[in-house]
Amino acid sequence: MEFVIIARVIDTFGVKGELKVKLFAPAEVFDNLKRVYLKRVGGGYVPFKVEGLREHRGAFIIKLKGYDSLGEVEQFKGAHLFLPESELPPRGEDEFYVYELVGMEVWTDKGERLGRVKRVEDLGVYDMLILEDERTMIPFVGDIVLQVDRVERKIKVKASMIL
Prior knowledge:
Layout: E1 3-13, E2 18-23, E3 35-39, E4 45-56, E5 59-64, H1 70-73, E6 80-84, H2 98-101, E7 105-108, E8 113-122, E9 127-131, E10 137-139, E11 145-149, E12 154-157
Parallel strand pairs: 7-12
Antiparallel strand pairs: 1-2, 1-6, 2-5, 3-4, 4-5, 7-8, 8-9, 9-10, 11-12
């Protein structure tokens, strides 16, 4: 079973065992979320039941069942939350999860290789593809990104729009 990172624990929240998380997946992934997985260092994925999840001032707050105090959840700071890939909601033809884009080769429509996607930054209005050289950044918008091929793991971009 393949697991996908859906969020990262930023910090604890309050004194009742809640965690503040940064989402790496669309908010609809968290609708009716019943469980998440955390990975042990050098070990497997451990399931945790979700007792509650809510939005709070632009962040999301998650409560794991059985963890009811600040002291019990401090160990989770910095941890990533995972879901099996098979449990993610289906996406539309022109929709992508961040994990799908990371590692893809980027080419211009003129046949020039620009590099491999290292990460995707959420800038609010749009996502930015950051390539492996850390200097090449490509807005993930329709005027620039011409094609994403999931099978070939390639992204074609408009050469005239890349500096």
